[in-house]
Amino acid sequence: MKYRLLNILACPICKHFPLELYVIERKRYERDVKVEIPACDLYCGFKGKYVKELKEHECIECLKYEVVTGVLYCPNCGRWYPIIDEIPRMLPDNYRSRSEDLNFLKKYRDELPEKIVHEGKPYNLESE
Fold it and tell me: pLDDT, tens digit, for every residue of 23-37?
């Protein structure tokens, strides 16, 4: 997943923006990037801040990375969405697989915050 995707993503359930990003693994790609700075107009996912709060923009560096594994988290409703193989899986609760979500949490419990592992919706390790 590209960091700049956080500039447009909102929680599919409660529509909250921006989402929090927790990176477990990222990959660097060598790319020649030509982009107008800032590349994002509202929110910089690379820095985790609104663009208007930034004094310096690292757009050229940001565009060289992809989040391979991680979690998008909605601080408003407490839902979390896994990023697997560079793809954010932002499905409504009724389309999510409980067993897949729990296996993901078990595998990455040490890399993720307690609010996701033990309190996240729709599934967490306390609801197991």
Answer: 999 999 987 777 888
The Cα 39–Cα 57 span in angstroms is 9
Q: Where are the domains of the chain?
A: 3-117
| DSSP run (H or E) holding 27 | strand 20-28
Q: Quick check: 83 and 71 in contact, CB under 8 A?
A: yes
Q: How many CA atoms lie within 13 A of 99 on its CB side?
A: 0
pTM of the model: 0.94
| Interatomic CA distance for residues 76 and 87, integer angstroms | 22
* DSSP code at position 99: H
How many residues does this entry show for the chain?
128
Q: Which of 2, 18, 15, 10 is nearest to 52 (CA)?
A: 18
Architecture of domain 3-117: Single Sheet (2.20)
